[in-house]
Amino acid sequence: RRITSPITRHSDVVWQENPSRILKYRASTLHLYGWVPFLIWRNVKATVFGNYRLYLQSIVLVSWMVVIHLTGLGAPTRDIQAFVRIFSTQYMGAVFNVGTVVVFILGLFVTLVINRWWAMRAVYAKLASHTVDVVTVISNVIRHPDNRDDPRVKRARTELIRFLNLGHLLVLTQADGQSRHFYKNQMLETLYNKIIGKFPSRKVPKIGEDSSNTWQKAARDISFLDLNAEGLVNVDEWQHIVDSEKRGMPRYVLAYHWAQAMLHELQAKGWIYNSAQSLPAMLNKLSTIVDSGSAIFTYINSQLPYPYVHLVSLTVHSYLWILATYLGALLYGGFHETPGFVQLAPGDISSTTAAGILADAVVDPTNVSGLLVAAPEKINGYVFTVVFTYFFMILAIVVFQGLVDMHTLLDNPFGRHCAKFPLRAQITELMNTCRSLIQTGDTMPECFQDVFQSDDSIGEAGEGGVEQPQRKDPAVRPERKPALAKKHQRTTSVDFTSPMVRSTE
């Protein structure tokens, strides 16, 4: 039985359904017009605009900016203008200089996050690729020395491949469920499900969803009944796995241990062809698989240092508060100085705007003929300026908060977000490959079967050629296997090649 992973194809992206994941996207379309926010609504949940934290922070910062814009926090206008003047200069502490430092710090931080994610991706790729490699070797070298058609050979191959798939799936279920280590507040959890849980990036599609279907669940929610229904583990084996976990051993280790022990037993019976080379190769691959599984959990549990991440987050959010305060003060008080030269008649200082400037200065008014004054310029009434000031503030929040949230997304690539690893597609592809190799491991194309014929059979065929193998009648349809039961039931024995053909308790 081939496991299918339903997908929806679009011109710009390929989506996996139940659970929703991005499988592929067209980079040219993304950079041409796909970058425009909310233009392609179905893709919003995969962008920073699908994160509710972005909107919460935007509301808080923009509200703070509006309060300063409208009230100035009750500070004198000249005080606000002095503040704007100081933070508009090129001196240390100016908004531009602070922004430059923040960009540098954030760039280094995001680089570390991406490098960590890439390393975890490489380890997982090694885990999956080496599993396929070992399965390919098993389907060729496990054979009876005297009877190639011995049914026990296929059984031995099936059990080995079953343990490899079980170990692979147990790695992913544990990696995907790492967030369960944190305490959950029931009140906050209820509020989250009612409000935030309905957000585009969190909402689970209900179309075609079936709770009894193993492959419509998140990897963290796959249980014993699901594994049992797919012919991956029986009751006795699962009990051993649970007992070992209670002693402190990860679940997946025992599955790979069984595979290694079985290889040694097959070698002792002489059922591994060319065992001097094949057995070490398979054992080395198995060791690499176990090492990759351990590396995945090492990466997940060895996060970036908390003090460093805290300082980066503090720096970025402090800069956004400074920027919101500065822009709000700018809209309230305007520019402090708009230089202009004013001609003055001797002794006419008191009637000019320069009177306030010279009030505390030691200047002889009779000798003043002109002044370069700084009259404040209000910009509250400039609609274009006000609108785009708020727009650029929101844009800054999106960019800086979005980059910080990359850490939230990539800290553990095994999770529920639609941009994380598409585990369903990868698991089903591996299991389909393994089951196909079990069924077709001994078959060869008819075009070169004559190469392996014995001399006697060649003589019987005559000098003109070889006997042609019988072809199957296309009108005869193969017998269908029983359909999948709607509900998973515990079974005492499992069949990995035909998981639905089994007896139930």
From TrEMBL:
Where is the protein situated, by its record's location annotation? Membrane
GO molecular function: any one? chloride channel activity
Q: Does the keyword Endoplasmic reticulum apply?
A: no
Bias (Polar residues) ranges: 491-505
Instruction: List all membrane-crossing ranges.
Output: 52-71, 91-114, 308-332, 379-400
User: Where's it mainly located?
Assistant: membrane
Q: Which domain of life is it from?
A: Eukaryota
Which residue stretches does the UniProt record annotate as biased composition, category Basic and acidic residues?
A: 469-482
**Entry-linked PROSITE patterns:** EF_HAND_1 (PS00018)
Q: Where is this region: Disordered?
A: 458-505
In Pfam terms, one family for this protein is Bestrophin
Q: Which UniProt keywords apply?
A: Membrane, Transmembrane, Transmembrane helix
One GO cellular component this record assigns the protein to is:
membrane
Which family does the entry's similarity section mention? Belongs to the anion channel-forming bestrophin (TC 1.A.46) family. Calcium-sensitive chloride channel subfamily.
What is this protein called in UniProt? EF-hand domain-containing protein
